[in-house]
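I am still getting used to backbone structure tokens and would like to learn alongside you. Please make up or recall a protein chain and show it to me in full. Would you write everything just below, so we can both look at the same thing?
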Amino acid sequence: MKFPALFPSLCLILCLCACGGTPVEQDSETAVEPPDTKTIKVGLICTGDENEGCTYNFIRGKNDASVMLAAEGINVDWAVKWNVDENGVCETANRELAKDGCQLIFNNSPGFEAFMLNAAPKYPDVQFVACGGQVSRADALSNTHNAFANIHEGRYLAGIVAGMKLQERIDNGEITPEEAVIGYVGASEDAEVISGYTAYYLGARSVCPGVTMKVRFVGAAAERDAASALADMGCELISQHSDNPDIAAVAQSAGILHTGYNYDMTPIAPEASLASARIDWAVYFEHAIRAVLNGEELEQDWCHGLDMRAVELTPLNRNLIADGTDEKLDEVKAALSDGSLQVFDASAFTVNGAPLKQAYALDTDGDFVADSEEAVFDGAFHESYFQSAPYFTLAADGIQKLN
């Protein structure tokens, strides 16, 4: 099977960008600039290459940001390092980009942060960003930063797309309410994944009240097996916190529905995949590049979602989505954007049969600790409020973890 241009190939890769090869090759791109154009050199360190889903999404953000900035007379001279491991090779990559004149360096994996922080003190005039990290936001260095997006909002929207389709099938007598079971392939059992699948489930349940979810966590090479197992259990729809398009292919082979992550998987599974949720990194890249070029202070911790269109759904599969999906999404997007709807509304779910009363808060050291109530206020759990990186890890009722 061949992908359309710019679509990732079938590869076994987790969405947390936790993989990469040992080569470190630099790809520098410089556009021809008109006389009045300002130029800034920016580095990007990636765990993979354009054929890997997580890196592909960052490259798409890089390219889109370049186009938007060019319209303002800003030329971005990108230096990209591909296939960097989460070890000392990453520290070397950061140092090399700084020496080569990059004023701003993005690291595309949380696993890069520790090595980025080893390099940053040597180059105080260079701004370093760990995307998805959570240490730089509170360290003593003025040139280190964290950034992420409210992807739980995007997951919630994808859940609505899935839930509306399941409810349509129930209403048409194709499945019973008890058969409205979602399978979810999780890359690992951490806060980003738990937050994501819980938001997805709550979105689906808001339009399909009887829906339940089964979650299977996997290793780096087991996504297809996990998806097949979920299909065999009778799940009517499979979603994923993984970049592996094999999951979409399994859903199509099993004759069930699917939603993806990071890029549009409908070319792989046109008869199954409804849509995918993704972070639009162009929004942050454009913001950070403009700030550094203009000598403005860059936030130590940045996080936005639908309010700045930093998260989105890929184009909906018009051949599969339920009637009324567009109208419902417009309604929910507006409510999430203005704050009148919260993804983790305390009235929308229970934990161990009890209403949400306890969650996470900041301790005196700035770390997140369990069994306090600070993150729950105004009737909701506020994800990515205290830091950009997700910290929701509660076990919502209706979601069964299989391993």
